[in-house]
Amino acid sequence: MSVRRHAELAGLKPNFTILDADDQVRLLKQVLGAENIDEKRWPARTLAILIDGWKNRGLTPSDVSEGEGGGFAFGRARALYSLYQARLKALNAADFGDLLLEPIVILRSNAEILADYQSRFAYMLVDEYQDTNTAQYMWLRLIAQGSKNVCCVGDDDQSIYGWRGAEVDNILRFEKDFPGATVIRLERNYRSTGHILAAASHLIAHNEGRLGKTLRTEDVPGEKVTVTGAWDSEEEARGIGEEIEQLQRKKHKLDEIAILVRAGFQTREFEERFIGIGLPYQIIGGFRFYERAEIKDAVAYLQVIDNPFDGVSLARIANRPRRGIGDASIARLQVHADARGISLFEALGQAEEAGVGAAPLKAVRRLHGLLQRVSRGQQDIDQLRIDLGVAGTDAVEDVLHAVAELGNGFVTHRRRHPLDRVHGSEDGIHGVAVLGLGFQGEEGTTDLCEVFACLVGE
Questions:
Q1: Share of the chain above pLDDT 70, in %
Q2: How many CA atoms lie within 13 A of 228 on its CB side?
Q3: How far apart are the C-alpha atoms of 424 and 326, rounded to whole Å?
Q4: Residue 243, CB half-sphere, CA atoms under 13 Å: how many?
Q5: Looking at residue 289, what is its pLDDT?
Q6: What is the distance between the alpha carbons of residues 310 and 17, in angstroms, rounded to a whole number?
Q7: What is the gyration radius of the CA atoms in the chain, in angstroms?
């Protein structure tokens, strides 16, 4: 279901911004600050986990019971959840949890919309069903009431995401939820050797509350599984480093050896060890594209122009690159905006009235003028460097280059396909970035005035 298609029913505009985890925490810090709650004692990240958990269970603030979250800020978690949601609406923004929660609210309260989606989806296929949470389950149950043609693929033995809201009971009670369903057990394994499969099957058999199956393979038995205990991560890295050196002495190639880790931080000890013994290595992975700071900054600039109510993105780029606008100035502007029911973007134009000091006042005015000109399509990259005060420096080069690359591909695409609208895509501004990347290398260059003119539909 498209939240953008029914944005008004969720109290949003179709071009609403989707906050990532970092922006969600940043906004929650503002909420805590406005309520005079010590963020060091009651971290915003902890509150974010609570709220995300409630949304994964399909709970709006009014659905949360009095006792839940009582350990946070002396029982104020539910009220803070409500304030956070109100702030999101004021910013024309949503977080990832809202993309699951809002459809449930809309479908439950609008019979015509529910009937429309039930008629649209005659057949439904759900993959990795063991990793669905309660909200996703409720969504499926609502839409599946129509055709009841549901196929779910999953493995209860592979449910490992309970810590982030996955509910394995969804797959365990599938036959009760959908009477008459056929259950097909896929018990032949095509990936693992016999010893690996036997070890895994013996280990998982100790789990309680499982559907059960008997796995088999026609592959060779292979090497036996070895289990090695290590006192800490340093000892683990040292032992694996020694084992790799032994394999090298036996003429094994390094490009035939790999270490799999569950999380990125686990590579640190290995890297330190390999550097110490002079063992060459390569890390595969790292930061995903949109997690890179310069890309998040570039996207934040685009989001502010597309959605002036996005105060979270504006707060992010207000002092990036450094222009003398500190947290205290942003806080004054936010208080001023809240008191008058205006956006942080509009408050920039009332900085003196908001009590911003003389030194940052000039920087705030320059920023406000810059954003206004860009939104009207009157700014190119060279002038942007001058206005930002970074002409000839490297500090913002990555940001500007990223914006230019993304924008060049997007504008070229829009010239050729004028009917394509970014607001019609589910990815919003990230769709702009994907289009830009997808069309890099096409002829022609462009400046920011064309990028933003296309973006705002001028």
A1: 80
A2: 12
A3: 36
A4: 11
A5: 60
A6: 7
A7: 26
Helix pair 233-249, 267-277: axis angle to 10 deg: 50
Express each pLDDT in 179-234 by its tens digit.
999 999 999 999 999 999 999 999 999 988 888 888 899 989 999 999 999 999 99
Crossing angle (nearest 10°) for helices 96-109 and 111-120? 110
d(CA 406, CA 299): 9
Topology of the domain comprising 4-104: Arc Repressor Mutant, subunit A (1.10.10)
Tell me the CATH number for domain 293-455.
Answer: 1.10.486
**Side chain identity, residue 176:** K
Cα-Cα-Cα-Cα dihedral of 189, 192, 193, 199, to 10°? -90
The whole model's pTM is what? 0.68
CATH 1.10.10.160 domain extents, the chain: 4-104
d(CA 435, CA 414): 10
Both tokens assigned to 80: 């803070």
Hey, which residues does 94 pair with through a beta bridge?
A: 18
> How far is it between the farthest Cα atoms of the chain?
77
Backbone angles phi, psi at 147, to 5 degrees: -85, -25
What would the two tokens of residue 173 be? Answer: 């009670």
More confident residue, 441 or 38: 38
Q: Would you say 216 and 189 are in contact if contact means Cβ atoms under 8 Å apart?
A: yes
Contact (CB, 8 A) for 113 and 6: yes
For the chain, give every residue range classified as CATH 1.10.486: 293-455
Render pLDDT for 237-295 as a digit per residue (tens, 0 to 9): 999 999 999 999 999 999 999 999 887 778 889 989 999 999 999 888 766 666 677 77
Query: Could you give the 3-state DSSP secondary structure of residue 143?
Result: helix
Three-class secondary structure assignment of 184-222? CCCCECCCCCHHHHHHHHHHHCCCCCCCCCCCECCCCCC
Count the helices and strands in the chain (H runs, E runs). 20, 4
